[in-house]
Design goal:
- The protein is α+β, with helices and mostly antiparallel strands.
- Strands 1, 2, 3, 4 and 5 form a 5-stranded antiparallel beta sheet that branches. It has a two-stranded antiparallel ribbon with strand order 6-7.
- It has helices spanning about 15-25, 65-80, 120-130; strands at about 5-10, 30-35, 40, 50-60, 95-100, 105, 110.
- The longest helix is centred in the middle third of the chain and has 14 residues, at about 65-80.
Length: about 140
Amino acid sequence: MSSSVLIALGSNLGDRALFLRRAIDELHHVIHVVRVSTFIETDPVDAPPPKYLNAVVAGYTDLQPRPLLEALHAIETRLGRRRTTRNAPRVIDLDLILHSAHLVCTRELTVPHPRYLGREFVRAPMRELRLGWRDPVTGNKV
Protein backbone atom coordinates (compact mmCIF):
# COMPACT_ATOMS: atom_id res chain seq x y z
CA MET A 1 0.00 0.00 0.00
CA SER A 2 1.43 3.38 -1.01
CA SER A 3 2.14 6.01 1.60
CA SER A 4 2.51 9.76 1.13
CA VAL A 5 6.01 10.98 1.84
CA LEU A 6 7.74 14.31 2.09
CA ILE A 7 11.48 14.56 1.53
CA ALA A 8 13.50 17.72 2.28
CA LEU A 9 16.57 18.40 0.16
CA GLY A 10 19.48 20.70 0.87
CA SER A 11 22.90 21.47 -0.58
CA ASN A 12 25.55 23.99 0.39
CA LEU A 13 28.65 22.84 -1.48
CA GLY A 14 29.53 22.94 -5.16
CA ASP A 15 26.84 23.49 -7.79
CA ARG A 16 23.95 23.37 -5.33
CA ALA A 17 21.17 23.50 -7.94
CA LEU A 18 22.79 20.69 -9.90
CA PHE A 19 23.00 18.51 -6.79
CA LEU A 20 19.32 19.15 -6.00
CA ARG A 21 18.28 18.32 -9.57
CA ARG A 22 20.38 15.14 -9.55
CA ALA A 23 18.87 14.10 -6.21
CA ILE A 24 15.36 14.67 -7.56
CA ASP A 25 16.20 12.52 -10.59
CA GLU A 26 17.42 9.78 -8.23
CA LEU A 27 14.30 10.10 -6.05
CA HIS A 28 12.19 9.09 -9.05
CA HIS A 29 13.67 5.59 -8.64
CA VAL A 30 12.59 5.40 -4.99
CA ILE A 31 9.28 7.26 -4.83
CA HIS A 32 6.55 8.31 -7.23
CA VAL A 33 7.34 12.04 -7.28
CA VAL A 34 4.19 14.14 -7.48
CA ARG A 35 5.34 17.67 -6.65
CA VAL A 36 8.64 19.52 -6.31
CA SER A 37 8.96 22.96 -4.75
CA THR A 38 11.07 25.73 -6.17
CA PHE A 39 14.60 26.01 -4.83
CA ILE A 40 15.13 28.59 -2.09
CA GLU A 41 18.38 29.91 -0.68
CA THR A 42 18.61 29.93 3.11
CA ASP A 43 21.10 30.67 5.83
CA PRO A 44 22.43 27.61 7.64
CA VAL A 45 20.67 26.65 10.87
CA ASP A 46 22.91 25.26 13.62
CA ALA A 47 25.61 24.81 10.97
CA PRO A 48 28.51 26.78 9.50
CA PRO A 49 28.30 28.70 6.20
CA PRO A 50 27.94 28.63 3.23
CA LYS A 51 24.25 29.20 2.47
CA TYR A 52 22.01 26.31 1.51
CA LEU A 53 19.77 25.75 -1.44
CA ASN A 54 16.66 23.88 -0.25
CA ALA A 55 13.54 22.25 -1.66
CA VAL A 56 10.95 19.62 -0.78
CA VAL A 57 9.59 16.72 -2.80
CA ALA A 58 6.17 15.18 -2.18
CA GLY A 59 5.26 11.77 -3.47
CA TYR A 60 4.20 8.21 -2.76
CA THR A 61 6.10 5.03 -1.99
CA ASP A 62 5.54 1.43 -1.05
CA LEU A 63 8.74 1.49 1.02
CA GLN A 64 8.54 1.41 4.79
CA PRO A 65 10.37 4.25 6.61
CA ARG A 66 13.62 2.39 7.38
CA PRO A 67 14.20 1.07 3.81
CA LEU A 68 13.27 4.52 2.49
CA LEU A 69 15.85 6.14 4.77
CA GLU A 70 18.45 3.65 3.56
CA ALA A 71 17.57 4.52 -0.05
CA LEU A 72 17.95 8.25 0.74
CA HIS A 73 21.37 7.62 2.28
CA ALA A 74 22.39 5.60 -0.78
CA ILE A 75 21.42 8.51 -3.05
CA GLU A 76 23.46 10.89 -0.90
CA THR A 77 26.48 8.58 -1.15
CA ARG A 78 26.13 8.21 -4.94
CA LEU A 79 26.04 12.00 -5.28
CA GLY A 80 29.25 12.35 -3.29
CA ARG A 81 28.17 13.10 0.26
CA ARG A 82 30.76 12.20 2.85
CA ARG A 83 29.54 12.08 6.44
CA THR A 84 32.05 13.79 8.69
CA THR A 85 30.95 15.93 11.62
CA ARG A 86 27.36 16.74 12.51
CA ASN A 87 25.96 19.65 10.45
CA ALA A 88 29.10 19.88 8.31
CA PRO A 89 28.66 21.42 4.85
CA ARG A 90 27.49 18.85 2.32
CA VAL A 91 26.83 18.44 -1.39
CA ILE A 92 23.43 16.90 -0.65
CA ASP A 93 21.23 16.21 2.33
CA LEU A 94 17.99 14.24 2.06
CA ASP A 95 15.70 14.11 5.09
CA LEU A 96 12.59 11.99 5.48
CA ILE A 97 10.15 14.51 6.95
CA LEU A 98 6.77 12.75 6.81
CA HIS A 99 5.63 9.23 5.99
CA SER A 100 1.84 9.10 6.15
CA ALA A 101 1.50 5.52 7.26
CA HIS A 102 3.98 5.62 10.12
CA LEU A 103 5.14 7.23 13.32
CA VAL A 104 8.66 6.08 14.09
CA CYS A 105 10.92 6.82 17.03
CA THR A 106 14.15 4.84 17.09
CA ARG A 107 17.78 5.75 17.64
CA GLU A 108 18.32 5.88 13.87
CA LEU A 109 15.06 7.42 12.68
CA THR A 110 12.25 9.64 13.92
CA VAL A 111 9.21 10.28 11.71
CA PRO A 112 7.85 12.85 11.49
CA HIS A 113 11.21 14.58 11.52
CA PRO A 114 11.50 16.01 15.04
CA ARG A 115 12.57 19.52 14.00
CA TYR A 116 10.74 20.15 10.73
CA LEU A 117 8.04 22.38 12.23
CA GLY A 118 10.69 24.84 13.39
CA ARG A 119 12.63 24.90 10.15
CA GLU A 120 11.50 27.58 7.76
CA PHE A 121 13.68 26.06 5.02
CA VAL A 122 11.31 23.06 5.12
CA ARG A 123 8.06 24.88 5.95
CA ALA A 124 8.31 27.53 3.20
CA PRO A 125 8.60 24.97 0.38
CA MET A 126 5.81 22.92 2.00
CA ARG A 127 3.53 25.97 2.01
CA GLU A 128 4.35 26.56 -1.65
CA LEU A 129 3.15 23.05 -2.54
CA ARG A 130 -0.13 23.54 -0.61
CA LEU A 131 -0.31 19.89 0.28
CA GLY A 132 -2.99 20.21 2.95
CA TRP A 133 -1.30 17.49 5.01
CA ARG A 134 -1.66 17.15 8.76
CA ASP A 135 1.10 16.48 11.21
CA PRO A 136 0.48 12.90 12.39
CA VAL A 137 1.47 13.80 15.97
CA THR A 138 -0.33 17.11 16.50
CA GLY A 139 -3.09 16.78 13.90
CA ASN A 140 -2.39 20.37 12.80
CA LYS A 141 -2.20 21.32 9.14
CA VAL A 142 1.38 21.62 7.93
